[in-house]
């Protein structure tokens, strides 16, 4: 991996004893605000390595890139859900000494951020949601997954058991998503990549880096109902693609409008904004965060 791009890995022990990996860039300033990034399906914290390396926030903010349990350096064959992912982020804040953080999530990671804001409102200062997905808006492959969710839920326990019995010793390589993003961007610029959705949602490619049971659990969680968005009282920035290969933009827009404290930026991309338009997306995030008044009291109505 490119050490100039990727922050070093650190580890913490979750409340249930699982070893969790995360990358940290600490600015060195006392009481610096924190930004925690949350990746999507079959991904890991390196999804945000390029952002963290080039964002202006790195001079005055502490930036954290956790690998959600079941992924990357937080690998496990045990059961997990959005509830576990939320609890793990609280453990991260406690380990790093932050009372609150801004949580930035992409796709499934945006769902985790929304649930965190409802479950632990005092620990969430604000949300940055990069192409959040809503179950009712899913289409294509994920739309099929939603319709077959009961079957998926029935498959997960036996698939997980088989994996723990027959493939427990298998070690999965760590996926460098910055390298994948750089390759995808070059292919987009050269006109060689016509369908970015196929590149980033290939089960065959994803299953080289995590167990099948973990992949199925990701899919189960991405179609799980979300809390009502009106419950989220924190400031919310949404970066929304003008086109999306995985969800209906009109339904997404209707859902996004339910946030009480919303700012929205549209970007001409197809769901993978930090890959397709990294400078535009980073500039929008930096500007919003720098204008965010960080206080010890979250906005409430």
What does this molecule look like?
- There is one protein chain.
- This protein is of the alpha/beta class and 301 residues long.
- The protein contains 12 helices and 8 strands.
- The chain has one domain (9-291): Rossmann fold (3-Layer(aba) Sandwich), CATH 3.40.50.
- The protein has helices at residues 49-54, 82-96, 108-119, 140-147, 149-166, 177-189, 196-200, 203-206, 212-222, 249-256, 273-276, 278-291, and strands at residues 9-13, 19-25, 34-38, 62-66, 101-106, 124-130, 236-243, 262-270.
- An 8-stranded mixed β-sheet has the order 1-2-4-3-5-6-7-8, with helices on both faces.
- It is globular and about 50 Å long.
């Amino acid at each position: 991996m490119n050490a100039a791009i990727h922050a070093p890995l650190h580890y913490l022990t979750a409340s249930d004893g699982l070893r969790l990996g995360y990358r940290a860039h600490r600015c060195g300033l006392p009481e610096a605000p924190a930004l925690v990034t949350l990746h999507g399906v079959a991904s890991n914290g390196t999804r945000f390595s390029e952002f963290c390396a080039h964002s202006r926030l790195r001079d005055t903010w502490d930036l954290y890139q956790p690998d959600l349990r079941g992924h990357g350096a937080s690998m496990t064959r045990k059961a997990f859900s959005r509830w576990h992912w939320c609890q793990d982020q609280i453990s991260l804040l406690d380990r790093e000494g932050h009372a609150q953080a801004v949580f930035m999530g992409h796709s499934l990671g945006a769902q985790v951020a929304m649930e965190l804001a409802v479950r632990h409102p005092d620990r969430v200062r604000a949300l940055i949601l990069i192409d959040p997905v809503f179950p009712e808006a899913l289409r294509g492959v994920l739309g099929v997954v939603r319709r077959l969710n009961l079957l998926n839920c029935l498959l997960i326990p036996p698939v997980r058991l088989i994996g723990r019995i027959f493939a427990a010793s298998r070690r999965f390589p760590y996926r460098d998503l910055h390298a994948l993003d750089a390759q995808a961007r070059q292919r987009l610029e050269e006109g060689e990549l016509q369908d970015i959705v196929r590149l980033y949602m290939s089960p065959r490619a994803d299953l080289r880096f995590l167990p099948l049971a973990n992949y199925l659990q990701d899919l189960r969680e991405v179609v799980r109902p979300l809390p009502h968005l009106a419950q989220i009282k924190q400031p919310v920035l949404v970066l929304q693609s003008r086109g999306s290969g995985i969800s209906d933009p009109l339904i997404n827009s209707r859902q996004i409008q339910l946030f009480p404290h919303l700012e929205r930026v549209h970007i001409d991309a197809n769901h993978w904004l930090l890959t397709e338009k990294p400078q535009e997306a980073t500039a929008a995030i930096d500007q919003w965060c720098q204008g965010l008044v960080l206080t010890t009291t979250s906005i409430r109505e």
